[in-house]
Structures are given as C-alpha cells and as structure tokens.
C-alpha cells in the first residue's frame, strides 16, 4: 500500500473547502448498468482494493492492480446490453494507454475504444457495442504503480437483467458426470440427489471435476457446495452451453471446506466444479451441489427444437411426396425476387420415381451421414422453361448430400450462379445445359462423384473441386478443376480448361444429418492438397442440435446475438430476416448455417454480420440482401486490426451470397471485407443486381464486391459481378484465387463515370500495388456496357509487376460488342473487338 504526500492531501482538502454548497438536482443521476454488478480483475493490490470497489457507487473506495502494464478490470452486467458510454474515474495511478472492450461470453473481446495519452482524472468515453461483459484493459501505466479506479461506470440499455435468485435447486436430480469416482458407492449422481448422506468422491489426484447437465441453458446466480471432509482448497465454478467450451464464473482459492455459497453471474446448460488443489491427501468429495437460477429478466435462449414451417422433412413412405415437390416448384419456378424459402430434407432410404424440380430459393438435402445413405431413383432437375430456355438467371438453389440414379441415365442441372451441387453421387451422367442448349452461365460442383460424363455444353464457365468424374466434354470459355479425379488436362492455350491436381486447402461445408432420430450438424475437418471426395471417411466432428439456436421467421437480431453470447451456434431456417442490429459472431468455432437460402436483410444502414478475429468460424448457406439505407459492409470477417495466425483452423465462408438490389433498392459501400488471415472463401456470388427492381447506377450503388486485407487468404470458386468500382480489391499478402468469374457493371453511364487515375474502367480484379506475393488461376472478366457500348475498358485485371505475383489463365470477353477491353492484364493481352464474343487470353503473367 502506498501513502500520498502531505502536499497532495492539503491540496485536496483546500479544493473541497472551496466547493460551493450543493443543491438537489432537478433530475436524478443516471444509474450505471455496472453499479453493484459482479466485477473481477487480473489482480488486486491488496484486500482493500478489490475489483468490486470500482463498481460500488462509492467514490471513496477503489480498485487497484498489481504494478504491471498488462492488467484489467471486468464487470458482468448480468445480461446482454447495448453499451453507449463508459466513464473511468481514475485515482492518482491512472492508465495512460488502455482499451475498453466488450464481450458476449467473457472470453472473446471486441474493442470499443482505444485510448492513448490519457492524463487521468475522469475519462468519459462514447462507445457503441453490445455484450454482457465490459472491461478496461490496461496497455501502459502512467506511474510506477498499478492501475487504480475510484469508479468504473458503464452506461447504456439492458436487454433485461436478472433481478432475483431462486431458492430452488436446479441441479437436483439432473444428469451428473465426473472426471473420476473413488468407488462405485460414490458416483457423480450422489452429489445431486438431494440426500446429504450420499456423496461423490474422486480419485486422489489433481485436477478433478464434477459436471451437471441442467437440461437447458439457464441464468446462473448462485452455487452452494456442501463438502465432505475431503474438500477442494482451490477450484473454479464454470459454465458452458455445449459442455466443451467453459467460462469461469468464480475462482476460489484457500477454501476451508464445509458448506459455502458463491454468488455467480452467467448462463449455461452445464455447470462444472473444477478442482485444481485438494485440501487433504484424499480426492474431492461433495455431499451436495445446489445450483440456483434467476427468477426474473430475459430468459436464456434455448437450443434445439423443431425446424420451423418452411423445412419439409420426408421419408420414402411420405404420402404424396411428388406432389410436395411439384407444389413448391409451382410457387418458386419463376419467383426470382420473391420471399418464399424452402428446404427439403430427405431421411435416409430409397426414393423411387421422384423428379424434384428446383426453383428459386429451394434446397434439397439428404439426412444421411454419407450421400449414398439417401438414394433417389429419379431426378433432381433444374431447367429453364420459365425463361424461354435461357438458364443464365437460374440462381439461388442447391442440392446436397444424396445419391441420384437418373431415369434417363443423365440428370439435368442447368444453373447459373449461387446454385451449389455438393456431396452428390450421380450414378450416371450430368447435363449442365438447359433443354435446347440455350444460354447458361454457372456454376459450382464440390465433393461429388459423377460416375458418367459431365456435359457443360453451353455453360460459359464452371468450377469443380475435390470430386471425381467419369468424363468431361467440351465447354465454352473457362472451365477450372482442382483435386478432380478424371478431369481433363489443361489446354487453356487452345481451349477452356485449367486443371490443378489438388486443392491446396479445403474444408467441406457443414451439413445437417440424422443420427438415429436426433438431428446433428457435421462439421468436416480441414484437408490439405485434397483430391477426390471427402466421404465416406468423413473426418470431422458432430454437434447436436441443442448446441444451435434454431432461428425461425420472426426472430430478432437481439435474440440472435443473445444466443451467440450464450455460446450457441446458429441454424437459420428458411425465411427472410430483417436485422436492426449487426449479428456479432465472437466465439471461436461458431457455426452459422442456413437452410433454404435463409436471407438476412440489414435495416437502417447497419452491417449485417461481423465475425471477430478468431479461429474456425464456419459461415455457410445463406444470402445477405442489402437494405435501402447504405450499409458500410454487409459481411466483415475479422476486425480491422486483425493479425492472428489461423492457419491451423481457418474461418470458412461457403455458399454465402450477397445481393445488392434486384428485390428492391439496396445500398452498401462494401459487400464483403476479409480482415482475418487464412480465411477460405469457398464458393460465393457477390452480385450488384443488373435486373429486377431498385436497379440503377446510384439506386443500388455498391462500390466494392470483395476487399481482402488479411494475409494467406484462399478463394476457391469466386463469382463477383457488376460493382461500381473494383469487384475484387486484394490488399493482403500471399493471397490465392482458384477460378474467378466476373461481369463489369452493365449500367456505367459513360467512360467518365468509371475513369480514375487516368485509367478507363476499374479492374475486375485488382491486386494492390503494395502486395509482393499473390497467385491466381482461371480468371475471366466480361463486359456488357449496355448503357454506353462505346466504353473501352483499359483491362480486366490489374496487378503489380513483381516476381512474387503470378497470374495463370486469364481471359476477357466483350459480350456482343457492348463495350470492349483494351488489354487483359495491365497493358498485356490483345484487345477484344467486334461482336463475335471471342475471348482475349493471357496464359501466364508476367
């Protein structure tokens, strides 16, 4: 403990004497959300300067830390809140540089404010964020002492707060497990049986634990421990939503056994007593554990449940099954910008004489762990009768995880962008063109086995990854293959093919399946230098549905964020979801999975989704549709200062699509920004609409499709079209792209509108001048300047000329002579000319 100088005391006394008499305020002061809440800290200078002193409302008491820079104090607000202001009333030992951070789970933190050069006194900081926990994280002290706060005040609006603690024991009679038991007479269940004459005891070793499953996520407020003579001296009380990731609610050291009660604040389905040091030479032994839960406030979000009204689950005996497919197809065949969303889920078994025609926003998936578990003797058909045989607008539909034996021997899958074909075993051939071989502009196949021949015919471009084919015939402009057994050899000089033997890094999309009668989500493992399908080996992990908040139409962004803060994953059922706040994904390994092209629409200019700079987040199977008020960034992966290494467990973005306009006016400065390192973008279509409603150069303005700031990012199957400026702007080092399809904005009013830095037209794919290493294969950009066909775009691709920049197999095309390209990449490559729609190519640059 330190003493202030006499001079400082006298000065403070004089200041107090000089104060005028106080008078009652006209309005009562706002009570901080933090006042009286549970506070913890990295350290405490002594017993009289505990963390709780910083939130007690008393400016005569304080928290102070040990004398080190890396120190923090944290307050648990008791529930999720919108935080708008933080006030720090520093004692003489203040923080010069520090951060204010927020967290939903107490483990993953987001910066709200970084302060540098503070001079102490009272710092009032306007912030904006949501979470349950707020902390001051010290970076540099201003003195040789630690950090010291008279008060740490957090202001904002609480979603709801726990106002009472129940007396009932939520643990009694619940399932309990333990790290070990001393003998058969001291099982884990004896600690929750309500009988103080029975007990659980462990083996004589450290650490040991007892875990209780409450059956559902609960708000936790108190835990009572009734120790037998063999007690825990040091232990933690922990909570978890999934039984795997644990949040410490209370750390206890120097306990003396007996009966003790501990106030806690948090939520979880599982409660664990985790012993780290025994008080005796025996193990740990508890007569009883009682868990108390909150009696008021916002209830926790529960995981699991039914899949909502727009998921159609069938089995081979379902009556009128063909009619179900036909009814949905009748609604969705031409509903390009409609609000209907549907997911067919087929239980394992054999389905005979089925023709599942798929229209817009319709997905079909098998519920087996392997594709061959769900066998269709029939067809899954996408054709273009609704559009007079033109398949270039057959967007937003999917097929996944089943086996298919076509009636005629060949299935028809005539799709354009955003129509993935994943984990399918076609016991025959596959025709990618519409009936009559009209125009087609697709597409994507992954992790699939086609026993027969794939015929793309009129398809302008296609990307196939980690699959096997019995053969591949013809193609138009750009057919790219990686890790595909049976793929044709590269012939880009004279033909459309670019072939790589393996895919450098891949991880298949998570999918829903049935384990007996229980729904689970399988999360495939990462593969390196993959070739061929990932099944039936199926390396990965399974997550039960009760670890997911099953999001149904009508759910609010606040509830979605509350579920994430509790540690739940998200399963969006088919529907359109309007968001009045950004969805914040902050926990490592979170899965956000959509069914039936679930669609997120940000309202009032908010961003749709932010992902923290953490390991292993999986984003898959949903559409983000820009709202009529400009959003800065529809999807942001990683914070702007992201720098962590995620190579062992990268975040993946798969079948995540962006739409700006078409279903009405939409505005966004950026569609997707990737700040994290090592992200895998596996099949996306980022589209500024060229048709539909709300379409115009400024009406659905969106400057950038994809901006990559992170290092070591890999894109496999990148479709980006029509943005006002750069479709792709790559600023990170060691980026790689395998297959790129692009059309420039049709509606550029004239050359002046897209001229910058003396260059006519923004490149479809630009690598920043500062980048030293980048590589890409199989890239195509097409122009169709319908508003001003006289525009001559300088080039499709713009990259720095450096030894580490390697571009393979690039082409540019003028569609029917509506605009032209002067070059392919930089000033290299012949110009397009005329109306003959013949590509200009460069096979290697530089």
TrEMBL record:
Residue ranges of coiled coil: none
Domain of life, source organism: Bacteria
Record flagged with keyword Thylakoid: no
Biased segments, Polar residues type: 32-46
Keyword Signal: yes
CDD domains from the UniProt entry: GH55_SacteLam55A-like
Pfam families: F5_F8_type_C
InterPro entries: BG_Antigen-Binding_Lectin, FA58C, Galactose-bd-like_sf, Pectin_lyase_fold/virulence, SACTE_4363
Designated name of the protein: Discoidin domain-containing protein
Disordered: annotated span: 27-64, 177-201
F5/8 type C domain segment(s): 21-157, 158-294
SUPFAM superfamilies: Galactose-binding domain-like (SSF49785), Pectin lyase-like (SSF51126)
Gene3D superfamilies according to UniProt: Galactose-binding domain-like
Signal peptide residues on this chain, from the entry's feature table: 1-28
Keyword line: Signal
């Amino acid at each position: 403990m330190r003493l202030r100088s006499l001079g400082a005391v006298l000065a403070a006394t004089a200041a107090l004497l000089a104060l005028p008499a106080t008078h009652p305020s006209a309005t009562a002061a706002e009570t901080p959300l933090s006042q009286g809440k549970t506070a913890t800290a990295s350290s405490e200078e002594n017993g009289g300067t505990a963390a709780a002193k910083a939130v007690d409302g008393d400016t005569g008491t304080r928290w102070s830390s040990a004398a080190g820079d890396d120190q923090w104090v944290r307050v648990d607000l008791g529930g999720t809140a919108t935080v708008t202001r933080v006030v720090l009333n520093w004692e003489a030992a203040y923080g010069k540089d520090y951060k204010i951070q927020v967290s939903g789970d107490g483990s993953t933190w987001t910066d709200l404010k970084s302060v540098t050069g503070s001079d102490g006194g009272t710092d009032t900081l306007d912030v904006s964020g949501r979470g349950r926990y707020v902390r001051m994280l010290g970076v540099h002290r201003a003195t040789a002492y630690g950090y010291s706060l008279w008060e740490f005040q957090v202001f904002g609006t609480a979603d709801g707060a726990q106002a009472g603690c129940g007396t009932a024991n939520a643990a009694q009679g619940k399932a309990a497990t333990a790290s070990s038991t001393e003998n058969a007479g001291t099982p884990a269940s004896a600690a929750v049986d309500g009988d103080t004459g029975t007990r659980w005891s462990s083996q004589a070793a450290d650490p040991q634990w007892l875990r209780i499953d409450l059956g559902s996520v609960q708000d936790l407020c108190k835990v009572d421990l009734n120790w037998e003579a063999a007690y825990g001296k040091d232990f933690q009380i922990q909570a978890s939503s999934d039984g795997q990731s644990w949040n410490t609610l209370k750390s206890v050291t120097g306990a003396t056994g007996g009966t003790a009660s501990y106030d806690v604040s948090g939520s979880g389905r599982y409660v664990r007593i985790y012993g780290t040091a025994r008080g005796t030479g025996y193990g740990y032994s508890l007569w009883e554990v009682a868990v108390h839960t909150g009696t008021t406030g916002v209830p926790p979000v529960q995981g699991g449940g039914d899949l909502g009204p727009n998921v159609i689950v069938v089995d081979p005996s379902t009556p009128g099954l063909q009619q179900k497919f036909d009814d949905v197809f009748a609604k969705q065949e031409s509903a390009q910008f409609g609000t209907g969303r549907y997911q067919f889920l087929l239980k394992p078994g054999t389905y005979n004489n089925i023709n599942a025609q798929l229209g817009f926003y319709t997905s079909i998936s098998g519920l087996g762990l392997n594709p061959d578990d769900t066998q269709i003797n029939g067809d899954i058909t996408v054709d273009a009768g609704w559009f007079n045989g033109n398949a270039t607008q057959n967007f937003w539909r999917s097929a996944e995880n089943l086996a298919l034996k076509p009636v005629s021997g060949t299935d028809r899958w005539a799709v354009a962008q955003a129509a993935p074909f994943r984990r399918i075993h076609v016991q025959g051939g596959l025709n990618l063109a519409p009936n009559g071989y009209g125009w087609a502009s697709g597409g994507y196949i992954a992790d699939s086995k086609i026993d027969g021949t794939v015929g793309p015919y009129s398809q302008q471009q296609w990307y196939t990854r980690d699959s096997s084919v019995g053969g591949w015939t013809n193609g138009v402009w750009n057919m790219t293959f990686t890790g595909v057994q049976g793929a044709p050899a590269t012939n880009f000089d004279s033909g459309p093919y670019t072939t790589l033997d393996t895919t450098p890094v891949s991880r298949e999309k998570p999918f829903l399946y049935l384990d007996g009668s229980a729904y689970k989500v399988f999360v495939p493992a990462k593969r390196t230098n993959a070739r061929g399908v990932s099944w039936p080996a199926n390396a990965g992990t399974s997550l039960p549905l009760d670890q997911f908040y099953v999001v149904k139409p009508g759910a609010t962004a606040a509830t979605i964020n509350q579920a994430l803060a509790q540690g739940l994953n998200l399963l969006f059922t088919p529907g359109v979801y309007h968001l009045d706040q950004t969805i914040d994904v902050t926990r490592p390994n979170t899965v956000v999975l959509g069914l039936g092209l679930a669609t997120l629409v940000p309202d009032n200019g908010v961003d749709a989704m932010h992902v923290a700079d953490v390991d292993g987040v999986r984003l898959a199977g949903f559409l983000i549709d820009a709202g009529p008020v400009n959003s800065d960034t529809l999807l942001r992966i990683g914070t702007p200062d992201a720098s962590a290494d995620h190579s062992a467990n990268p975040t993946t973005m798969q079948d995540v699509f962006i739409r700006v306009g078409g279903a009405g006016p939409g505005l966004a400065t950026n569609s997707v920004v990737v700040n994290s390192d090592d992200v895998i973008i596996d099949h996306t279509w980022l589209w500024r609409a060229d048709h539909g409603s709300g379409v115009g150069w400024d009406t659905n303005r969106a400057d950038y499709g994809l901006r990559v700031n992170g290092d070591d990012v890999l894109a496999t199957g990148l479709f980006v079209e029509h943005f006002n400026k750069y479709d792709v702007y790559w600023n990170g080092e060691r980026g790689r792209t395998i297959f790129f399809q692009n059309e420039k904005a049709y509606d550029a009013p004239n050359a002046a509108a897209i001229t910058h830095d003396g260059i006519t037209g923004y490149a479809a794919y630009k690598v920043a001048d500062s980048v030293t290493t980048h590589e890409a294969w199989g890239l195509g950009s097409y122009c169709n300047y319908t508003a001003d066909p006289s525009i001559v775009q300088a080039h499709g691709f713009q990259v720095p000329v450096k030894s580490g920049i390697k571009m393979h197999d690039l082409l540019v095309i003028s569609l029917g002579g509506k605009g032209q390209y002067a070059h392919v990449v930089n000033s290299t490559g012949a110009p397009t000319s005329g109306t003959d729609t013949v590509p200009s190519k460069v096979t290697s640059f530089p």
